[in-house]
Structure formats: C-alpha cells, structure tokens
Amino acid sequence: MKKATTQKKDSGLELTKISIYPIKNKKMTLKANVDITFNNLLVCKGFKIIDTGSGPFVSKPSVKGSDNKYYDQVYILDKEEWDEIAEIIIEEYKKAV
Q1: Is the pTM of this model over 0.85?
Q2: Residue 36 in contact with residue 20, Cβ under 8 Å?
C-alpha cells in the first residue's frame, strides 16, 4: 500500500492502513465503506466510496442534521492532502474488488 505523508508541512501524519469493506449489491451507488488509520494510532471510520457514474468518489464521514442536510464529521484542511488521501483510497478499493 502506498502511504500518504504530509512531510512538506511537517505534520507527522502518515496514512498507515486502509480497510475496505466492499458492498456486495452491485446496483447500489455505495460501493464500499472505508476506515483509515494514521500513524498506526488514529482510526477514522465512516468514509464511503460512491459510484458517481463518472468514476468513484470518496465521501468523508457525515451525519444528518435536524434540517435533513448532511454535515462532514472529518475535515482535512489542506485540499492537496485530501486529494492525495482520496486517490490512495480509490487505488486500494480498485485492488480489493
């Protein structure tokens, strides 16, 4: 597995594990649930891989508010870092299915 690192910002975060849980129903747009681990210490659960019709998309964990809107529960402040993490998750998903 490739590892995402944030060395350019010296944050010390390293993506050390990706757990992919594929959905067996091929008709669903939800293709897999994903958990990611940083530094073999911090686990973030609830990422989802969704088929958008133009390819897979990684959705961050979210909850539905009383206004019926969904709100992200995990924020990755650096867009480049998030793009790199999402790309690695998609690569691991493609290997798993």
Answers
A1: no
A2: no
